[in-house]
Amino acid sequence: RRGPSTPYLEGLNPEQRLAVETTEGPVLVLAGAGTGKTRVLTTRIAHILATGRAYPSQILAVTFTNKAAREMKMRVGVLVGEAVEGMPWLGTFHSIGVKLLRRHSELAGLKSSFTILDTDDQIRLLKQLIQAEGLDDKRWPARQFAQMIDGWKNKGLAPGDIPEGDARAFANGKGRQLYAAYQARLKTLNAVDFGDLLLHPIRVFREYPDVLREYHAKFKYILVDEYQDTNTAQYMWLRLLAQRQAGSVNVCCVGDDDQSIYGWRGAEVDNILRFEKDFPGATVIRLERNYRSTAHILGAASHLIAHNEGRLGKTLFTEQSDPDDPKVKVHAAWDSEEEARGVGEEIEALQTKGHALNDMAILVRASFQMREFEDRFVTLGLNYRVIGGPRFYERQEIRDAMAYFRVVAQPADDLAFERIVNVPKRGLGEAAVRQIHDVARMRGVPLLQAARDLVGTEEMKPKPRAALRTLAESFERWQSQIDRVSHTELAEQILEESGYTDMWKNDRSAEAPGRLENLKELIRSMEEYESLRGFLEHVALVMDAERDEGLDAVSLMTLHSAKGLEFDTVFLPGWEEGLFPHQRALDEGGRTGLEEERRLAYVGLTRAKRNLHLWFTSNRRIHGLWQSTLPSRFLDELPEAHVDVAEDGGGYGGYGRSAGQPGRPNPYGRSRFDDTSFSNSYATPGWQRAQRNRTDATDRNWGTRSGHQAERIGYGETDSG
Ligand code: ATP
Ligand code: MG
After folding, report:
1. Which residue, by CA, sits nearest to atom 31 of ligand 1?
2. For residue 696, pLDDT beyond 80
3. Which Pfam families match (predicted)?
């Protein structure tokens, strides 16, 4: 029953082919990384179109990011040519949600011209509502509440649905009422937030069965990629569209429970496990052949993920195993600067051998790690692009902090002054700023000078005047300090005294901790310069660096945004306890957080096709203090057979690596990586200290882990040395 001309089916393995050709009825493809799940979805779309089963407008295809959507459109285009034109329903949950809502806005009580609020708007609005309730918005921060509302919306909960306990958790039990007031206010403003893009369509589908039936008739085929990361609201939305009374439900979801990495944002991996119940008679297809990576990479990744308990478990194999394939390389560095230098050298070496920069990626656990690499690449003149977010120095918190520093170093920098005059909020609204501008223009002086002049007059209202006086005096104080304290100390002082750090500390949003980390990294990076001015010059140059998106460039991104992507060469820096696994997951104590970190590690490892480099440093500056760091437990969880400890310069050359030392033929000590970087000459005391802390913490994970480790590798603590 194959179509007359189906060249796109060629090369698929039998299971993939089954997944493509089982067009009717529910299909779940549950398979590990690199087994061709996304390829199956793309080919399936091509097949449906090529065999005339549906028009492009009758296919609903959901991807996780806009980038993935564009890529899928392109890949289908390659397979079927122009037929892909006008696939209007291929996109993310949000982009499809907007489209649905524009069509049915009146049923949701909106005009079709509704606006979509960003987080800032949302928070401003919530703050007004909190204050209108007579509540102290310092005690009950709007950002925290915004976060709670997002959580409820991810679970598909309207104000009336939220559980009693949750409702009590905010503002002495006013949570529900405030949430309802917020929704009402959005309606008057003819606005929606991101969560509404799913919730409104869900409500419309429920309340207007005719509308839902219209879509049942319209969407003949539904496809979803990365199904393991759908949250409850997305799942409800999908089920409404996919579960119909009569006729077949042609829904195909693909995913991998081992790659569920958005639990912290409300994703429910259970959705994938429930599929067969939700869609009785579903065909479940498992793909086991990995086409992406070498046997070494796959071996390392499979071995690592096997340490998770809560998983379905699956087989993965590859036929790509050439004796010449490089093993996974683990490198040690003294600190993050050396790490960046080592990665840079490796990249240049590959480039010399003819590898394209486009085929290389650096995937970090936390975005503050990017700074060191970006600086290094600028120095080397290596082209790079940051995916899924701004470059380090372009981030909001970095720009804000830099603006303070610029005004201190260069009081006539009006742009910088304007940026922070009311950040954090200090009651200097538009009117006050206009007044400052007027004075500046009249007298031909910089804004800061105008501000100083203004506070000496009666022209301004008392409140803003007091605020402006404090600010002007602060700048005077900071300027007077320039030659007295070190520039890093001054920078810290500025961020503290201006209230800027506190602003983010009081911020309950998911991004706030990352922003604080970035600020610390900013201060850290200043140490490498002699003076504040020298540092500012450096940043100006970095900001000005050539960037041409079309050029060959190394990709730099977080592990979270690397989902679904693949590169020839992948660098994974920062494999240290406290960074990866992240301290927040360790602090939680339980299994959940740690297992999600391990899945993230699995996602990272499986992005590589051929060359995979892991790095850890012996020292990292955390919270302003240098600390000896321990290699990540995930390094210990890699199988020896597929891993090489790099001998190439880097941290080892200079820091007394244990291999090659007399009496230590086995480079793997008690824990193979704990010892190698810390041996003898340098950080032994630090390492011992860290080791003690770790044992003192009576961390269950650590306990079971070392036992497990000793058993698995076949030597215990007593064997080493
Ligand atoms: P992830 O879980 O990381 O999202 P995936 O399961 O979606 O991975 P794909 O990205 O679809 O995997 O495929 C991985 C790589 O293997 C791609 O480069 C793809 O083109 C290739 N591939 C998949 N199936 C085949 C096949 N039958 N023959 C040759 N190459 C294939
Ligand atoms: Mg994929």
Report:
1. 291
2. no
3. UvrD-helicase, UvrD_C
